[in-house]
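Anyone else keep sequences and structure tokens together like this?

Example one:
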Amino acid sequence: MINRRERKKELTKEIIIDSALALFEEKGFQETYMEEIATKSDISKGTLYNYFQDKESILSAYFQALINNHDNNFNEVSERFKETRDIKETLNKILDFINHIFRENIQYTAIYFRYRLQTLFNANPIDNPNRSGLENLISEVIKNAQENNQLRNDISSIIMARNFQFMYMNYFISSIYGDDNIDLELSKSQIIELFLNGAKLQKN
């Protein structure tokens, strides 16, 4: 249970995120300045920088909050996997879930992806405690699959989760900016197949 000081910090953080999003909608992301976010949040510029170093980190926190607010979806995916032990079905549901999150916020998704890639190695990529909620979810599913001998266990679940995320980014970009005739369901199944079985030609 968090104390009063922590609750106040969380409330301030929420106010900053809400204020920033309102300005992004009103003026555009690039045209919004940190000073304006501080003013709208009714805090000093120094206080703002104690919470966020730039606009991109505010946007990242927004997506993190969105993901964390979908705990029921996370639990459903995890519990479903424990029941079925079907890793392919579970990864398919994960792709549907994160596709929903990012499509609902399409104007910010590219900025978020770019920021995540740029900050990927700011901390230890394996032991980083600030991994995204999506990465933790995927890692947990992969770890369970490893324990059930459905996936190789000589590779860290975090490394495998991160590779799956990179593949997902490619899928999402293709679905948004690719040919209108692209078969998204086929593309999704191909990504899962590539992740689970690799690019080696499968013999009949």
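And example two:
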Amino acid sequence: MQATLPPALRALRLPLRLRLWDGQQLELGPDPRVTLDIKDPALLALLASPRLDALAGAYIDGGLDLQGPLPDVIALADQLSAAMGVADSTAPEARVAHDRQTDAEAIAYHYDLSNAFYALWLDPEMVYSCAYFPTGTEDLATAQRAKLDHLCRKLRLQPGERLLDVGCGWGGLARFAAREYGVQVTGITLSRQQLALARERVDAEGLADRVSLELMDYRDLPGDGRFDKVVSVGMFEHVGHANLGLYFRHLFDAVQPGGLVLNHGITSRYPDGRPVGRGAGEFIGRYVFPHGELPHLSTAIAQMSEQGLDVVDVESLRLHYARTLEFWSGNLEARLAEAARLVDEKTLRIWRLYLAGCAYGFRHNWINLHQILAVRPLADGSHRLPWSRADLYV
């Protein structure tokens, strides 16, 4: 029995082949680059209104399979979704109450997956955040070292200073700052697996006298201004809109007057924080980052300012993150057999889509990433920053 496809779908002329449960093959355009294996007849109706989260969910649950280069898969899914009239959401994301238990569970879900799995596709330092490509030609390891140096230069770190690293991950930045800039680093995380490996690496490099890493919620940070500088990389996405003010207040209280605070994080395209990508945001919220909320740049700056932090510099690294994710996705695709021995099939499917999909999303301006540098002003409103940025690029 011949399958019935929506007329609009047949008219698309996309380089896509549909392979149905009964063996039928339908080509929607010449020279198909991607094949969609539809195993469940009920999923054929999905193609009439192919939201990206619904397509992803069907793949994750095994109702369909994907054949072809993953970047082509993601691009064709986007073209299919757009051509069939699926619209972006116009409603703000539902807000989540971010208490300590909720945040700890969300962090464990994402970051305590498997250190060995992350090591398959990250750089040797296991820096799980946007790299920095000064020329665009660097390999991943070089770009990640450049990012760590870029952060330290922006913070104008000096030997002997005390640096707080909020959300320290596997400790790559903490070790780099201690080793290359001679600072004393305190790092905090909610991920037990990250912390265990980070401490191992600190000890292996002989940095235990300069780097202290703790399992701690940002709400438990000391508020006595004991740190000269504060950095937070890839952390505030987990804080939640309702807690942004509280979060930046804790960073303000942790740094001494005249000290710098550098926040590096993913930001929303829309000022109201609504998801984009015709269901892509919902996919990430459901499968990858539960309870994650992306504030717009204007919201982040407003909350920092409200808490007394004077914003002095903002830099977008959107295309840098697209390139980073393309490296990560390519690394994972090259080591799928090893990855399948470390995580279950469903998890691997989630991460294949997540890395390739986010690379596409950053490349196409669905989301952004900003480094925001701020200072806690001295009592008279002044600060000690140089008059120009020239020192960053010497």
